[in-house]
Amino acid sequence: MEIVSGTDEQFREQVAEAIRRARGRRRLSQRDLAVAVGVQLRQIGRYETGEQSPSLEIAVKLARVLQVPIAEIAGMTPSGIDLSGRWSAAWETQHDGVSRVEVHSLSVTQQGEILSLGAPEPGAGKNGSFQWQGEVRIWDGESLVGWYRASDGLFGSKGTLYLALHPDGHLAWGGWWGQSFDGPMNRGWVTMARDEDQAAHAIDKLIETGGAWSPRAAG
Predict the structure, then answer these.
(1) How many CA atoms lie within 13 A of 71 on its CB side?
(2) 3-state SS track over 18-83
(3) In this predicted model, what pLDDT tens digit does every residue of 164-213 receive, in sequence order?
(4) Are 106 and 118 in contact (CB under 8 A)?
(5) Are the CB atoms for 27 and 195 separated by under 8 Å?
(6) pTM of the entire structure?
(7) How far apart are CA 213 and CA 197, in angstroms?
(8) In whole angstroms, what is the distance from residue 206 CA to residue 211 CA?
(9) Which of 3, 27, 117, 217 is most buried by its number of CB atoms within 10 A?
């Protein structure tokens, strides 16, 4: 973390940029953000132009809605992209020889280049899927490399992850390789996105194209 120093104007500009960037990642309009935080629309405009800085109370609300550390809203900037917060993950898995896609919510905690992955609450899986946890490292700001394992010891699934990271930090897509239900080793596609529908769409495209799809190529 780097603490912002300089004039009050520079501080307001730093906070304004942090709010604009985080709002863009969350794909919220200024009106959406104003409603969620409980302030008037023009107030969000003042924050994002650097005309005013939010009070501590509003900064806490902004951080919660935008899913960023309060330090970022308070004028401290991460050394790289901030991926912490709530995500959705989609997995291509196999059970009894049948391929299927599992989608569930995922919490991400970031410490520098290391991301800790886990379910935000018990029972967050859907369609009978099991919850998993893991850790990945951000490589060169463009990929995530690491491991995963089932949170429940009754399931033996564990293995490695590689995902490409979208420059905007709202989507990651790639594959897993490891131990699965159907045998000692298996593999499939996996996606992570801030939006559940986007995660599901991305993994459908990976399966459809055999991994040739890329949101960069798709525009």
Answers:
(1) 11
(2) HHHHHHHHHCCCHHHHHHHHCCCHHHHHHHHHCCCCCCHHHHHHHHHHHCCCHHHHCCEECCCCCC
(3) 999 888 999 999 999 866 567 888 999 999 999 999 999 999 999 999 99
(4) yes
(5) yes
(6) 0.60
(7) 17
(8) 4
(9) 117
Residue 41 backbone zone (phi > 0: left; psi -120 to 50: alpha; other: beta)? alpha
| Closest to 108 measured CA to CA, from 144, 71, 72 | 144
Hey, is 194 helix, strand or coil? Answer: coil
**In the block, which residue shows the tokens 């992955």?**
117
Q: Is the separation of the CB atoms in 31 and 41 below 8 Å?
A: yes
217 phi and psi angles, rounded to 5 deg: -70, -30
Token duo for residue 146: 């690491």
Alpha carbon distance 106, 86 (integer Å): 6
pLDDT at residue number 124: 45
> What is the 3 state secondary structure string of 144-181?
EEEEEEECCCCCCCEEEEEEEECCCCCEEEEEEEEEEC
- Give 97-148 as a DSSP string: TEEEEEEEEEEEEEETTEEEEE-SSTT--STTPPPEEEEEEEETTTEEEEEE
What's the token pair of residue 109?
């905690």
